[in-house]
Design goal:
alpha/beta, 6-stranded mixed sheet, 3-stranded antiparallel sheet, 23% strand
């Protein structure tokens, strides 16, 4: 990928807290239109990477580039185009609408009523009236995502947006993330330690381990390289007999297995779309 396609680029980013090295030379690139999944176990450095991008913590070494800019003045301007969910901080006594109204004012968003209406519809909280203190975990995550997309940012960062959610909540977040890219034109970076979920959501991935991004891959890299044809049959012994009779070697034989998610939705209903 050429640099002109890069929305965010990190080069040799290092960060320590005292004598503890958190990031040990991170290199990664997020391109325009990506849904980029940042994968790593708890403590791998995912949240610290986000803080480097957002300027919430000072790096010890390396270069951060956002939309091609590396100097501090331009970085500050371009960071204003980033929406982010890194934790959720809202006023307990305010409703979803009232909390978003407060943050819209802080962000200097004009025509805030129309924008808040749009955001509440997108995250499924348009008719919710109760105060934040009575929100479920799923509603809290939805409001956090809503705050992140206020003003329709160019880049959206979501740190563990499905953490603690039930299967339906996870599927709902996935659908929203894909909508943000496909309908609203955002470049999205989402972190999770739930590999199966990110595989369903993202199209590019950065694998974080030991304070470095050990590899960046795409969905194509996950596909099996060996050419093959998959045939579903209702009479396996007969199919094997026909193939053998025609000198077609069976390289691999597997039984079809549902994913846990598919099994869950078949059993209890609901939708992952």
């Amino acid at each position: 990928m050429s640099d002109t396609q890069a929305m965010i680029k990190l080069e040799n980013i290092k960060k320590s807290y005292g004598k503890i090295e958190i990031l040990k030379g991170v290199n990664m690139q997020i391109n325009k239109g990506d849904i980029y999944g940042l994968i790593g176990k708890n403590g791998a450095g995912k949240t610290t990477i986000f803080k480097m991008i957002l300027g919430l913590s000072e790096k010890n070494d390396g270069t951060v580039s956002i939309e091609g800019s590396t100097n501090e003045k331009e970085l500050m301007q371009n960071r204003s185009k980033i929406g982010f969910l890194v934790g959720t901080k809202f006023y307990n006594y305010l409703s979803a609408r009232e909390n978003l109204k407060y943050y819209a004012t802080v962000k200097g968003i004009k025509n805030s009523k129309e924008e808040i209406d749009r955001v509440l519809e997108v995250v499924g909280l348009k008719d919710e009236k109760k105060p934040f203190k009575n929100f479920s975990l799923g509603m809290t995550q939805r409001l956090g995502i809503g705050n992140a997309i206020l003003g329709n940012p160019d880049i959206l960062i979501l740190d563990e947006p499905t953490n603690g959610l039930d299967p339906q909540g996870i599927a709902d977040v996935r659908h929203m993330v894909q909508r943000f890219r496909d309908e609203f034109g955002m470049t999205v970076i989402v972190s999770s330690h739930i590999l199966g979920e990110l595989e369903h959501t993202a199209d590019r991935f950065g694998i974080v381990n030991g304070g470095v991004v050990v590899r960046e891959i795409t969905q194509d890299d996950l596909k099996e390289k060996q050419a093959s044809v998959e045939i579903a049959v209702d009479d396996l012994p007969k199919a094997k007999e026909v193939l053998t009779a025609n000198n077609i070697r069976i390289v691999r034989e597997v039984e079809e297995k549902s994913t846990l998610e598919d099994y869950y939705f078949r059993l209890v209903g609901g939708s992952k779309e």
